[in-house]
Structure prediction request, 508 residues.
Amino acid sequence: MANIKLVLEYEGTNYYGWQIQPNVPTIEGELQNALARILKQRVIITGAARTDRGVHAKGQVVSFKLSLSFPVFQLIPALNSVLSPDIRVKRASQVKNAFHARHSARYKIYRYVICNNFVLHPWLRNFSWWVPFPLNCKLMQDAASYLIGRRDFSSFENKGSPFMSPVRCVQKIKIKKQGSLITVSIKADAFLYKMARNIAGTLVEVGRGRFSPLDVRNFLLTKDRRKAGPTAPPQGLFLWRVGYDRDIFDKNSW
Amino acid sequence: MANIKLVLEYEGTNYYGWQIQPNVPTIEGELQNALARILKQRVIITGAARTDRGVHAKGQVVSFKLSLSFPVFQLIPALNSVLSPDIRVKRASQVKNAFHARHSARYKIYRYVICNNFVLHPWLRNFSWWVPFPLNCKLMQDAASYLIGRRDFSSFENKGSPFMSPVRCVQKIKIKKQGSLITVSIKADAFLYKMARNIAGTLVEVGRGRFSPLDVRNFLLTKDRRKAGPTAPPQGLFLWRVGYDRDIFDKNSW
Prediction:
């Protein structure tokens, strides 16, 4: 019984999010079907994050147990030949038995992409939030600094979250401007429901001058979701990376 | 009677190219319909380049005569509210009467995008050519240097071209690598039919070692299309920019 870790990229546009649901296409459902097709058996897979409908991934991580002696190095070409081109497997490796895509995760990075241009570039329409007015990135970065640390993020959590505690540790928020593209990258130990999109939506309000950086500090303190900015739309969000300890790989299997 | 110049961006994926044809969607057809809708009259438009099916544009230029007194600055929001989001008007200006999008063009730049990665990133699948083997950009740039100058490009012209002379002046070819993205930008006074894609297809053969840079010089001399490399697929190509003289604008209209 081998424990397998996959890393996936996907465009979320045509899926109802990660989590499997009856009668609608989901990333988890597509991957489970693809695995069933090549392994001739059903496996139960775990994703590191349950991305929402329309959200993309550059580094979603999946783990599952494999009872067959299917060669790990053949998983990538086999799965990619069966999956639709909007889902790609980019890494496959055998990991220690204790590895679990979600529980073993040390941090996650989400990246939010803003098209800050007079018109929305056609090639970015499924991959960014179109914000056509000027944004002050310096103010956005100042506001973001108040969100760093272990804090109660109730003001940035939407209802429907399965988590008990609203405390999360945000390690870094980086705002970068390249031409008409602005990216907001957020690294945290874990994220509350819609937390990345609520932070992005709030920082855009700061960038356009509706909130000051100090307002953002106050939003945290009130612990009231209604105070902070709107939830940014899903198509700008990428699950960028999930980080683990270095010693997860099963060296005996090589 | 005002002479109008528009600059467009579009994703060509869902269109049968620029040129209007019966019963299929084309960029020219969509733009002509949008203009008819907002101006309540049919206008005849001229595009600087007839991009092929699946080819994109970041800077297609269009000109047409406008008999109505429709305010030029309202053309952008009016057209964009009517056009599908995969076509955007990004500039509109009144130009001198002699201006013609195609005849007045001094140069064109096409950019060809290659996804040079083990897997094809889902978000690039409609916007790049997936080349999964290593490419030597230095050799590609060396080969490109033989194509610079006023030369007979018969070896890089597909049949079906409406042009009489196969002589074109290529001013610059720049190959750039950024992560897994390789771009080939070609600046010329004008392009023969599928010339940009034939140059890109040939340079990729050089990059993977099938042709040497010197072979490319010889392809030019043979003037035989069958000698040079394959036509690169359309989805990697962008009409990047069309250049004109600086004095095209009609200052009296301001």
Observations:
- Residues 107-240 of chain B form a domain with the Alpha-Beta Plaits fold (CATH 3.30.70.660).
- The helical segments of chain B are 27-39, 75-82, 137-145, 195-207, 213-222.
- The CA atoms of residues 12 and 54 of chain B lie 4 Å apart.
- Chain B has five helices and ten strands.
